[in-house]
TrEMBL record:
Taxonomic classification: Bacteria, Pseudomonadati, Pseudomonadota, Betaproteobacteria, Burkholderiales
Major subcellular location class: membrane
Domain of life: Bacteria
Keyword ATP-binding: yes
Compartments where located: Cell membrane; Endomembrane system
Keywords: ATP-binding, Cell membrane, Membrane, Metal-binding, Nucleotide-binding, Translocase, Transmembrane, Transmembrane helix
Similarity comment: family membership: Belongs to the cation transport ATPase (P-type) (TC 3.A.3) family. Type IB subfamily.
Protein name: Heavy metal translocating P-type ATPase
Length: 292
């Protein structure tokens, strides 16, 4: 039978928007010594807005915006929403594209006017042997400001740069500082690039950042740390976090995130407020003290 103090703890959490799905998660919370935390949508609001849109010499800004809009209307990614909103605000009409494909953790592609169009992170264009040197300096400058930078390639030419920025949640800084004071090692995991991720992490007093990760990498990092004997919590919001959330000793999903993340996790923070992790730990501590 579930001890009464556990039931009470779970009930108290629910009242404060901290949904603890099972007794085991409540038990494990006080034991965690490592917190892996996704950047986009977890440390940050997950509602990026477009900051820059610049095109190569001789290219039409209106045409490339229409093309970006067409590609990103078909994507669910937060950066896609930022680009579509920007295009809508400028009354852009989507271009006629075909053969849309989403390249997980990298970007999107389609065919337009007999050409292959790519829109995604600089690594994606590099992989496809597109020369991005004309944009390289601007890419680094914006990444150092914490922007996520995307490039558009049409066939073998880099034609546009788009950058988005995402606000850090008001609750993140204090919650992270307190978790660190409790002796928890906090590591940022992200599919975004290292320069952008480090710029964001630095604002939160964090320096351990693992960047350029695919969903399988996040999962593997959880397993590796567990194999070292660490008790690992993972906090995230995306489909790409789901395998890692399920594998962690305590998976913590944001209520603002995807359904898949919430199903995979053991704890859901209804409002996505990271202070909920502290709350959950204190409930865990109280419940376990009463049992001991
Ligand atoms: P995160 O961990 O930041 O949520 P993802 O693994 O989902 O990141 O994506 C990694 C990177 O791939 C993004 O930061 C972005 O640069 C690029 N990317 C992903 N989806 C898209 C898209 N629909 N359009 C353009 N770029 C994208
Ligand atoms: Mg995310």
């Amino acid at each position: 039978a579930t001890p009464i103090s556990v039931t009470v703890g779970i009930g108290r959490g629910a009242r404060d928007g901290v949904l603890i799905k099972d007794a085991e998660a409540l038990e494990s919370l006080e034991k965690i010594n490592t917190l892996l935390i996704d950047k986009t949508g977890t440390l940050t609001e997950g509602k990026p807005t477009l900051q820059n849109f610049s095109v190569a010499a001789g290219e039409s800004e209106a045409n490339l915006l229409a093309l970006s809009m067409a590609l990103e209307q078909r994507s669910e990614h937060p950066v896609a929403h930022a680009i579509v909103s920007y295009a809508e605000a400028r009354d852009s009409k989507p271009a006629e594209i075909s053969d849309f494909t989403s390249i997980t953790g990298k970007g999107v592609s389609a065919r337009f006017d007999g050409k292959t169009v790519l829109l995604g992170n600089p690594a994606l264009l590099n992989e496809r042997a597109i020369d991005i040197s004309d944009f390289a300096q601007q890419v680094t400058d914006l990444q150092m400001l914490g922007h996520t930078v995307m490039l558009m390639g049409v066939d073998q030419k880099a034609v546009a740069l788009l950058s988005v920025a995402d606000k850090i949640k008001a609750s993140s800084k204090e919650a992270i500082a307190q978790l660190q004071q409790q002796g928890i090692q906090v590591i940022v995991l992200t599919g975004d690039n290292a320069i952008t991720a480090q710029a964001v992490a630095k604002q939160l007093g964090l320096d351990d950042v693992r960047a350029d990760l695919l969903p399988a990498d996040k999962f593997r990092i959880v397993q590796e740390l567990q194999a070292q004997g660490r008790v690992v919590a993972m906090a995230g919001d995306g489909i790409n976090d789901a395998p890692a959330l399920a594998q962690a000793d305590v998976g913590i999903a944001m209520g603002s995130g995807t359904d898949v993340a919430m199903h995979s996790a053991h704890v859901v923070l209804v409002k996505g407020d990271l202070g909920g992790i502290l709350k959950a730990r204190s409930l865990s501590h109280q419940a376990m003290k009463n049992i001991r």
